[in-house]
């Protein structure tokens, strides 16, 4: 591990590099909100002429558009320039983990555009380890540098901040402030730097060993090494420069380390003093080796697992080839659309600017990136002209225009298609005997394939022993769903009530998010564990009925698949409480399986 | 003029390069879908191809890039203006238009020109991205994440070549012939099969794992960035050759003969694979013809079918949850079955 000071120094180097050559595009700083981030941001604003881009910026704001209110007021077009049209300096994005995909893609396109102004993008990613950050997104891919700033003691930070202030005041660093907007200081020199073949080879090998597949990252690494060499007035790229490139470009993107010989590790030797580079090569301490080693381990484990899992997955599918009627989910959803009695119009989002137009409304608090619906606006303004002292009949002589005021503004409302999420509630208890469970899994996989085709999401809850778990949070990834299914263990009691309770929670959340939940319950209906975990059959049944009633109240469409070898009235009763469609799985027929797999 | 990485300097990714060239030869093949990892040169290849294509003649001042030679297909503006004055024209390179993910329908198809409507009170049409892409390339990165209704709309226009605008009290149609190139990573979500089917060709790209190849790519790119002019000059001959090849192929295309037995093989292949509808056959046929034309051959034979079958059909197969083998493998299996030895 490298310590805070070294990381800080590296972060400063990153800024030097960006200042030296704008073709590096930018930097992503992974840091928690706090003094470290503030100190760094402070420093950035000293060095660069900055423009902030709020994460909520609309495309109009980013790319520039007509300012409607001003245009109307002045009677001539007033163009509001976009933030991305900024010609020089740095664009700052704070809290980048909150960027939505459309903003991200506009920014990515901007970074890709060869004619875009030569600005650099400094992106603060405040995501924690639990939530997904920017890393791996198309935008992160297009910015050369990545660095994590650790939380550090205030005293250390103070010392570091003072350290950067002193040289700026004295003569040692030639007046940064004056060329604050002068990017590309070294970009021409960098082109002339010689890049020895063996270093290029080492960088390429390193990228491969770290699992950095993208050629873009590798190319950035090469560029960084060049620029770094040029900054230090070197004619030839040295191992130092390559080391910096590895630290700022490659290792933050690493997925793991292939267990191989350690020669390439020297690449990463951490040196801030160039003179002693050669001497220090031996005592290499790779910056993120610890993390990488642990990654490596888990990756290996995963690989092993997935391999064996694929085997199991195959078997399960063949075991099941499930005997469910085709297009089950499609029918279910259609049914829901027909008798959708809950009056909630969750699909029409007020902010949405895409989808099917469903009438107009007034914009709340001015037009924020939404497009004016001119015709409706004029219609709204027309009857009020006399009130505004604007007699239209006399207008001919006065040549006065229609008076349109802010209150007349109308924008189009859009309805976005609601997303369907299918929630599987799977009984993994001992009573759902082993082969039945396999069959159920197979059935789910078939249904999953169907969900997938219609771009729906799936979630999965399983219950066994004395509790229920959310095995699979709503996802669209079939690969992940398959893996989770294969891992699903079986055995134990049947806490049906807990399973239904959890299903209720998930369904409730989905409804809140404006989605359409569909619940598929696969159980034999023989509840024997009550909500409190006690093994009382009658109490368990009672709880299950209560939970079923609760779930039914959400009005979510339900399908009850009875996995018992012989259908029983209890299960049917439960299904009727759930207001679910009841579907007994026909008896397992081993003969039919190969035939079904063939077709 | 900005610096574009030369097409002939792109290492590897033969399928992607070939499919783009074929689509450039015969636009009726339809769009090209490039699926695969990031950083595999998708954007580079497309921009490079657009740059080497012959310049197109465009009526000056036309917002839809009308062809001065095809007066019967002119937009209303050009028709009107041509009655008043003699239209002038100039040459420009093939346009490449990026369609960002969050683009609104207004922006894509065009809409009422607010500026003119508000200040001058004129009902005018403000062309969108589709107009800008006319006679060029329309590139959508992460097409699999694009909203379905937009993809639908794009494919409709791509096939018909006409953009019909019925909105904001406007009723306008204008030519929008472009080559649709979509790219995406299937792990982040897939396209619906209905949409997949409408792309003409589909190729899979992956990052090269061979260390020498990676080195070669880095070397070339590095040289390009250090001295673009010299680099472009170095490859200008090769690029010109490819350009020539495409121009020749376009001329040759109507004369490429498709004998009955080749057509039979194509149909047999599609039946064996169970592709829905006839789009598979048609695309495969066109692709074979374009490939033959590119190689200066006048007759479609098994050679062409073998080469282009996978990229023409791979995305038209029914998803079979019980068959995990890759779609390319299935196409190859089917080719074996109909007696086409795979190379």
Q: What's the Cα radius of gyration of chain B?
A: 21 Å
Looking at CATH, which topology of the largest domain in chain A would you report? Rossmann fold
The major sheet of chain B is characterized as: 5 strands, parallel
Largest interface: A-B, 73 and 58 residues
CATH architecture label of the largest domain in chain B: 3-Layer(aba) Sandwich
Give the termini separation of chain B.
42 Å
The averaged pLDDT of chain B comes out at: 84
Quick tags:
heterodimer; A: 599 residues; alpha/beta; Rossmann fold; Helicase, Ruva Protein, domain 3; 4 domains; flat; disordered C terminus; B: 343 residues; 2 domains; 5-stranded parallel beta sheet; two-stranded antiparallel ribbon; 14 helices; 11 strands
What report would you give on this structure?
The complex is a heterodimer of chains A (599) and B (343). With 599 residues, chain A is of the alpha/beta class. Chain A folds into 4 domains: 1-174, P-loop containing nucleotide triphosphate hydrolases (Rossmann fold, 3-Layer(aba) Sandwich), CATH 3.40.50; 186-287, Helicase, Ruva Protein, domain 3 (Orthogonal Bundle); 318-339 and 419-598, 3-Layer(aba) Sandwich (Rossmann fold), CATH 3.40.50; 356-415, no CATH class. Chain A contains 22 helices and 15 strands. In chain A, the strands form 4 sheets. Chain A has a 6-stranded mixed β-sheet with strand order 12-11-10-13-14-15, sandwiched between helices. A 5-stranded parallel β-sheet of chain A has the order 2-5-6-1-7. In chain A, strands 3-4 form a two-stranded antiparallel sheet. In chain A, strand 5, helix 5 (101-112) and strand 6 (120-125) form a beta-alpha-beta unit. In chain A, helix 9 crosses helix 10 and helix 13 (289-320) crosses helix 18 (478-487). Chain A is flat, with a radius of gyration of 31 Å. Chain B has 2 domains: 7-53 and 93-205, Rossmann fold (3-Layer(aba) Sandwich); 254-337, Helicase, Ruva Protein, domain 3 (Orthogonal Bundle). In chain B, 46% of the residues lie in helices and 15% in strands. Chain B is built from 14 helices and 11 strands. Chain B has helices at residues 14-25, 42-52, 76-84, 105-109, 114-119, 129-132, 148-160, 193-196, 211-226, 228-252, 260-273, 279-294, 302-313, 327-337; strands at residues 32-36, 56-59, 89-92, 96-98, 110-112, 125-127, 136-140, 162-167, 170-175, 178-184, 201-205. Chain B is globular and about 65 Å long.
């Amino acid at each position: 591990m490298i310590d805070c000071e070294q990381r800080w120094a590296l972060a400063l180097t990153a800024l030097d590099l960006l200042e030296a050559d704008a073709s590096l595009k930018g930097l992503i700083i992974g840091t928690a909100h706090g003094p470290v981030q503030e100190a760094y941001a402070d420093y950035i604003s000293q060095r660069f002429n900055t423009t902030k881009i709020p994460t909520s910026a609309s495309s109009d704001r980013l790319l520039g558009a007509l300012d409607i209110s001003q245009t109307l007021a002045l009677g001539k077009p007033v163009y509001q320039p976009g933030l991305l049209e900024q010609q020089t300096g740095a664009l700052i994005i704070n809290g980048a983990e909150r960027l939505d995909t459309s903003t991200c893609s506009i920014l990515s396109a901007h970074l890709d555009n060869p004619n875009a102004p030569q600005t650099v993008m400094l992106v603060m990613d405040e995501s924690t380890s639990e939530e997904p950050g920017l890393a791996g997104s198309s935008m992160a891919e297009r910015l050369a540098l990545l660095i994590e700033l650790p939380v550090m003691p205030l005293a250390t930070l103070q010392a570091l901040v003072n350290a950067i202030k002193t040289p700026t005041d004295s003569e040692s660093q030639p007046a940064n402030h004056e060329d604050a907007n002068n990017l590309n200081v070294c970009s021409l020199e960098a082109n002339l730097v010689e890049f020895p073949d063996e270093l290029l080879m080492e960088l390429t090998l390193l990228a491969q060993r770290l699992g950095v597949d993208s050629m873009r990252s590798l190319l950035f690494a090469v560029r960084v090494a060049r620029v770094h060499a040029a900054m230090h007035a070197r004619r030839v790229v040295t191992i130092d420069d390559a080391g910096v490139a590895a630290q700022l470009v490659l290792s933050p993107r690493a997925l793991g380390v292939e267990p191989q010989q350690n020669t390439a590790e020297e690449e990463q030797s951490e040196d801030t003093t160039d003179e002693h580079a050669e001497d220090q090569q031996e005592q290499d301490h790779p910056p993120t080796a610890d993390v990488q080693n642990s990654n490596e381990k888990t990756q290996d484990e995963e690989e092993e697992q997935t391999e064996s899992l694929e085997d199991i997955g195959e078997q399960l599918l063949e075991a099941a080839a499930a005997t469910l009627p085709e297009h089950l989910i499609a029918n279910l959803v259609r049914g829901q659309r027909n008798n959708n009695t809950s009056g909630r119009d969750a699909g029409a989002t007020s902010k949405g600017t895409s989808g099917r137009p469903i009438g107009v409304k007034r914009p709340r608090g001015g037009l924020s990136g939404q497009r004016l619906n001119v015709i409706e606006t004029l219609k709204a303004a027309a009857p009020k002209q006399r009130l505004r002292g604007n007699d239209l009949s006399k207008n001919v002589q006065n040549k006065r225009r229609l008076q349109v005021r802010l209150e007349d503004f109308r924008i189009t409302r859009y309805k976005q298609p609601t997303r369907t999420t299918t929630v599987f509630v799977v009984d993994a208890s001992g009573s759902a005997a082993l082969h039945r469970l396999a069959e159920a899994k197979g059935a789910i996989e078939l249904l999953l394939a169907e969900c997938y085709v219609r771009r729906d999401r799936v979630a999965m809850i399983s219950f066994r022993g004395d509790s229920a778990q959310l095995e699979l949070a709503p996802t669209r990834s079939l690969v992940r769903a398959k893996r989770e299914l294969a891992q699903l263990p079986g055995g134990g009691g049947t806490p049906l009530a807990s399973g239904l309770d959890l299903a209720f929670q998930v369904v409730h959340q989905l409804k809140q998010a404006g989605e359409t939940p569909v619940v598929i319950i696969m159980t034999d209906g023989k509840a024997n564990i009550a909500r409190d975990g006690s093994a009382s059959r009658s109490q368990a049944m009672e709880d299950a009925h209560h939970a079923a009633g609760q779930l039914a109240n959400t009005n979510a469409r339900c399908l009850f698949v009875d996995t018992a070898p012989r259908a029983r009235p209890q299960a049917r009763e439960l299904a009727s409480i759930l207001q679910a469609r009841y579907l007994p799985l026909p008896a397992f027929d081993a003969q039919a399986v190969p035939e079904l797999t063939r077709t | 003029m900005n610096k574009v990485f030369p097409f002939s300097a792109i290492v590897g990714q033969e399928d992607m390069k070939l499919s783009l060239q074929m689509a450039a030869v015969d636009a009726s093949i339809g769009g090209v879908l490039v699926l695969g990892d990031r950083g595999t040169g998708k954007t580079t290849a497309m921009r490079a191809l657009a740059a080497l294509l012959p310049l197109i003649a465009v009526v000056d001042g036309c917002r839809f890039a009308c062809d001065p030679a095809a007066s019967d297909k002119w937009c209303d503006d050009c028709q009107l203006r041509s009655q008043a004055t003699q239209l002038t024209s100039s040459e420009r390179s093939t346009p490449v238009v990026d369609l960002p993910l969050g683009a609104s329908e207004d922006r894509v198809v065009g809409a009422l020109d607010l500026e003119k409507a508000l200040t001058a009170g004129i009902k005018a049409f403000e062309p969108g991205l589709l107009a800008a892409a006319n006679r060029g390339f329309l590139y959508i990165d992460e097409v699999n994440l694009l909203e379905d209704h937009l993809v639908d709309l794009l494919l409709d226009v791509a096939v018909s070549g006409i953009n019909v605008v019925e909105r904001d009290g406007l009723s306008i149609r204008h030519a929008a012939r472009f080559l649709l190139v979509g790219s995406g990573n299937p792990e982040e979500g897939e396209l619906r099969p209905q949409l997949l089917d409408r792309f003409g060709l589909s190729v899979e790209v992956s990052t090269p794992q061979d260390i020498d190849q990676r080195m070669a790519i880095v070397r070339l790119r590095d040289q390009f960035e250090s001295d673009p002019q010299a680099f472009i000059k170095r490859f200008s001959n090769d690029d010109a050759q490819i350009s020539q090849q495409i121009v020749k192929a376009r001329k040759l295309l109507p004369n490429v003969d498709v004998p009955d037995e080749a057509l039979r093989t194509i149909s047999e292949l599609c039946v064996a694979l169970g592709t829905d509808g006839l789009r598979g056959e048609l695309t495969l046929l066109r692709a074979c013809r374009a490939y033959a034309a590119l190689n200066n051959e006048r007759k479609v034979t098994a050679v062409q079918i073998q080469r282009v079958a996978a990229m023409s059909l791979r995305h038209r197969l029914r998803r079979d949850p019980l068959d995990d083998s890759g779609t390319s493998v299935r196409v190859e299996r089917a080719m074996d079955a109909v007696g086409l030895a795979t190379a």
